[in-house]
Each structure stands twice: as C-alpha cells, then as structure tokens.
Amino acid sequence: MKKPFYLLSLMGLLLVMSFSMQAQSLVIDKIIAKVDNHYILKSELEAQYQQYLQSGQGNTPTRCQLLESLIIGKVMLAKAEIDSVLIDDKKVEMELSSRMDQMEQQFGSQKNIVEAYGKTIASLKDELRSAIKEQLTTRKMQEKITGDVKVTPKEVRKFFESIPRDSLPYLPSEVEVGHIVRLAKVTKNQKEELIKKLLDYKRRVENGEDFAELAKLHSEDLGSGKRGGDLGFAKRGQMVAPFEAAALKLKPNQLSDVVESEFGYHLIQLLEVRGQEYHARHILLRPDYQKMDLTEPTSYLDSIRVLVQRDSLKFEKAAQLHSEDKGTQDAGGMLIDPSTRSIKMPLDGSMESGLYFTLDSMTVGTLTKPIQYRTEDGRTAVRVLYYKAKHPPHFANLEDDFQKLATITLNRKRNNAIEEWFAKAKGEVFIYISDEYKDCNVMKGTGQ
C-alpha cells in the first residue's frame, strides 16, 4: 500500500459534506470501521475519494490510503479523549461562523443554502459544529505529535537528490499577488442600534436581571454565550486590546460601558482578578456584515491605487501603511500559499476561483479597481489586487523551489512521526475494520 495522506485540513470540509450527501445516494451506507466510540461510514470514505477525483490535482490516493488516514484520525480523537486534549468551544464557534459566512457567499443567501442541502441552517450548523470540533481536535493532536519535527537544508537537498531525474515534478505556472484590504464600516444606524441594545442589557442587569441569562439569550459569541458569557480566566495580552483595557479598568462584578473591538460590540463584566490573570464574561453583538457601508473603504482604496499607479507610493509600502489585513500587512500585502508558505502560488485549480478569474483578466504589473471581498473570518471588505509577477511552468529545482521542497520534506518527516505514533497508539484503543476492507492491511503497519 502506498504512503497514506495523514496531514489533515479544514479547507475541504464543506466540499466533503456536499460529496457526502451525494455519496449516500449512491451507496448503501454502513459502518466500515470503528475506533472506540468513533465510527467511519462508507459514505464518508467515498466522499473523500470523490473529492480527490474531482479536484483534478492528480496523485489521487487509493480508498485504502484514505481509510487508513480516516482511521488514524479517529485514533487521534480517541487518544485526545484519553489524554484530555480539549478544544475551546469559542474556537469551534469562530470557525463555524467563518464557514457559514463562506457558504452564504458561495450560495448567495441562506435560502439558497437550505435549498441546496435540503436542511435547515440550524441542522447544517449542528453537523458542521461536530465535524469542525473533530477536525480541530485532530489538528491539535497532530501538532502534539509532530510539533518538534524540523528539517535542515541538508535534508532538503538529500531528498531532492533522491528523486530520479525523470521523475522530477513539473510545476504549473506560479504567480505573486498582493492585496490591500479595507474593512467595510458599520453604518451609523447599525452602531447606534447595537449600542442601544447593550445599554438596555446593562440597565436590566443593574436592575436585578441575571447577566448569564441575558448572555445565553442574546450574545452572538455562541461559544461563551451558552455558558452565560463566561470567558474563563485569561492571561494579560490574550484578549484583543480594547476588550482587555476595558475589563481591567473594572472592579469585580462591575459592568463596562459598550466596548467596540474587531469582533463587534461588548458589554463586559469583570468577575475576578488573580495575579496576571482575569476572569470576565461578556455579551457580544455583531453588526450585520451584509448591510455594512462600503463607500468610505472604496474611496480610500481608490486614492491609494492612484498613488501606486503614479509610482508616488510603492505597493508594498502602501500595504504596510494602509491595509487592514493583519495576516499580509507586514509582508507588503503579498498573499501566501497556505500549503508551502511561499509567495509563489500555483495558477491552477487549487487557487480560489474568484482570484483565479480576476488574474485571468489582468496583466503583470497592474492593479484592480477596488472590489468587494470577504475576509477569512467572514467580514465584509474591499480590496485592490496587485499582479506582481508570473513564473512559467518548469521542472522543480533547488534554486527556485527550495521552499516547496522543504515543505514536502517536512511533511514526509511528519508523516513518519505519525506512522511511529500510530504503531504504538493502535494497541491502546479498540479498532474494528469490516471484512470488505481487510485487504487494506491497515493494522499490519503503515506505509505498505
């Protein structure tokens, strides 16, 4: 059996859900494997296999490889329970919110999502929430297993030299693209309405109502909301600056005024301070991102674009000074391929479709006009794209592709670490595999 695909990702979660629904109509679903209390369905395996087939990326893993990867993932979940590796509900809810925003952007409206999946938004959220929590837990276990794995330049060179010359990968065209992002602004009416609601909650608490009950009913931070807004103890510097500054000005049980942060608007109650930690709870209200004002950020970016086109301001400097995308700001606005951490991104089907088609209509060295954009965390924004460079397709070499080769080398070492971990961990949990897949030899050792 070929080396399985161990390193898992959240990126294809929605796509897998869609394929899973198709797969269930094509196969009679049944349990094909079980790890302690975690099950693997035939439709789940088929969904992942079909996803790889339709991705067009080549090197499609076999069903046996994918089954082994799924089983290892379930063993990680089982071991996470045994080893008390926990995921904060707040992280799950933040990821869920981002995924739902992406779906709404993709389908155009929540109504279209419901029609496409044949399920209510609440049902979809429940399914996604469970899947996201599993994947975040698996990712945390992967990090625990492979966190100390590193590669040296010597190892990268050794790996490259081990590849037969007639087997060197042929890399597609690559591009270097940057952007400057400005976030949409909350309208005056929206802001006033949210502040009014939070001040009303504050008045009601001061008049004797239970803060926790109001948070459960009204807070849009769903993770803490179901705990009455309780955020637990946080170390100084852990929370966003406006929240922490306001919380630490309070006395125990005192309520804040309305606090604005990048996440929305908060009503905060400090519960306790313990050394360098503090315990607070909050009610969070977010603006409706679909109704935010794009006028000011569009005008702002128009002005920046003119300066860059006149060469009065270099693009990289403009991004550092004016972009509100913290992830790319320090890098001069340059987008990064998440799989390789390189500013060179393959110009193929793996690229986000909106970006791909925009670049298709551009020439190197040009900027777009301001275009509407949805950030990774689901916020409405405007951006200008800069097409900095295009690199022709070529066979991989150390000089041009060192970072990619380093990533491949690192992933191979990480996979080896996971193989070694699995060889030990599989004896600590109950694993059942149906006879239909006995030839996969999953339990006879990995990498066969």
UniProtKB/TrEMBL annotation:
InterPro entries documented for this protein: OMP_Chaperone_SurA, PPIase_dom_sf, PPIase_PpiC, PPIase_PpiC_CS, Trigger_fact/SurA_dom_sf
Primary enzyme class: isomerase
PpiC domain sequence ranges: 172-272, 275-372
Record keywords: Isomerase, Rotamase, Signal
Domain of life: Bacteria
Residues spanning the signal sequence: 1-23
EC id: 5.2.1.8
GO-annotated molecular function: peptidyl-prolyl cis-trans isomerase activity
PANTHER family (alphabetical): CHAPERONE SURA
UniProt name for this protein: Peptidylprolyl isomerase
